[in-house]
Every structure is written in structure tokens, then in C-alpha cells.
Amino acid sequence: MRFDIVTVLPELLESPLNHSILKRAQERGLLHIGVHDLRAYGLGRHRQVDDYPFGGGAGMVMRPEPLAACIRQMQSERTYDEVIYLTPDGTTLNQALCNRLSLSENLLLLCGHYKGIDERIRQKFVTLEISIGDYVLSGGELAAAVLVDAVTRLIPGVLNDETSALLDSFQDGLLAPPVYTRPAEWEGMSVPEVLLSGHEKRISEWRHEQSLERTRVRRPDLYERWRESEEAP
Ligand code: ADE
After folding, report:
1. Is the Cα torsion angle 182, 183, 188, 194 positive or negative in sign?
2. Which of 109, 125, 127, 133 is most buried per CB count within 10 Å?
């Protein structure tokens, strides 16, 4: 799977995309990430990429020409399943959307800055607008890194133990159960007996009950949805 990310701050993406699971996935050839500096498509001697908003108001808006030139260059090199603009007014990212995106071959991600990108770019090129939550970041880069991370863990072969993505919170619509490691006794607190029993069936039942209880208490919205899906024929 391949992500191409268009940004005015390529350095901001360097570290998050080059460690741990994302690093290993790239080394194994399961993931390719191209980071493209929009400034290379900027206008004039100063490589300008933004300008004042028509109608006035604070902040700058990203001009359409550099973005269009960059997107067209990318699209001349490969076909994209989606052209995604990271923006707080997009569809909120969730596990179902990550699952869907993990089936893509190529995704083009556009990171906005300042007050956002000229609306005409959204109309002409963008096929999907994604927010990572109801808060405003300084730019789309960290949101793009979140998207790449969440989607990459779902690509077959990326995680060592493939079942571990299946056990992530949200993967079955429930939150994950609590986890423990050694020591079995720590500062007067002990690990639930069942986890030490070696009894696989009981352990898996216990984990399921804990998942259900955690979801019911912390995320009643998810719990209701899960119950409805279990009741469906
Ligand atoms: N850009 C700024 N804030 C954002 C958010 N919450 N999600 C995605 N992109 C953003």
C-alpha cells in the first residue's frame, strides 16, 4: 500500500512515519510513503503557497495553483483510490473507515495549513474529507500521521501476530479488555486469577466479559450499537 502526502512541512512527518511499526512495514516493502513538499510547486521567486482570504478576515488560505499542480503530477504517476483532505470539518475517522481505507492501493493525503485550502481544490480533486476528532490542529500533518498509522496496522503482514490487530479496541466494535504482565503480585495488587490459569476458554470468556463491561461503562454509545448488531438476524 502506498500513501503520498502533500505538505508544506515535510520535516513534521519525518519522525512519526519512521519508527516502530511504520518503519518495519516500509522496510518489509508492505508500505511506501512519499512525502511531497508543496513549496516545490509554489509560485514565483518566493515559492508562494498561500494568500489573503477574499472577503477579508484573519489568517491565510492555501492557493489553488500549487496544490493543483502537485496533485496533477501525483495523478500522472499513479491512480489513487481516494484523494483525502485532512480537515476538522471532515468525516470523523473511526475503525470502520480505517478498515475500508486499508483495502486501498494508493491514497493521496493533502495537509492543510493556515485557514485551510481554497474551496475549489476540494470541489475539483478531493474525494474524501477526514477529521481525526473535534478539535483544531495547527495543520493536517499530525492528522495524516494518525491516519497512516491506524490504517497501516491493518495491512496483512504488518503486525507480527496478525491476530493482535483483531484484538485492538474497536476492531469488533468493543473496547479492549485490561491487560497484565509480570509480576503476578505488585504492590499488593494481583493479576486476576483466571489469566494465570492457562485455561484458554475461560480466559477468552473473561476477556470478552471485561470488554463488554468496559464498553458499557465508558462508551454506552458503542455498547448499544454492539448490542443491536448482535441482535440483528
Ligand atoms: N486539521 C486541523 N485540525 C484537524 C483535525 N481535527 N482533523 C484533521 N485535520 C485537521
Report:
1. positive
2. 109
Q: Using a 6 Å CB cutoff, which residues line ligand 1?
A: 86-88, 112, 131-133, 135-137, 140, 143
Q: For 84-118, what is each residue's pLDDT tens digit?
A: 999 999 999 999 999 999 999 999 999 998 789 99
State whether residue 205 is helix, strand or coil.
helix
Q: Read off the C-alpha cell for 122.
A: 476540494
Q: From the CA of 14, how far away is ligand 1's center (Å)?
A: 18
Domain boundary among 86, 119, 152: 152
Inside any domain, residue 134 = yes
Whether 146 and 132 have beta carbons less than 8 Å apart is answered as yes
Give the range of the structural domain holding residue 88, as residue numbers without chain letter.
2-152
pTM of the model: 0.95
Cα 112 to ligand 1 centroid, rounded to whole Å: 8
pLDDT digits (tens, 9 = 90+) for 107-146: 999 999 878 999 999 999 999 999 999 999 999 999 999 9
214, three cell numbers: 468496559
Pick the atom of ligand 1 nearest to 130's CA: 8
* Residue 6 to residue 145: CA distance in whole angstroms: 12
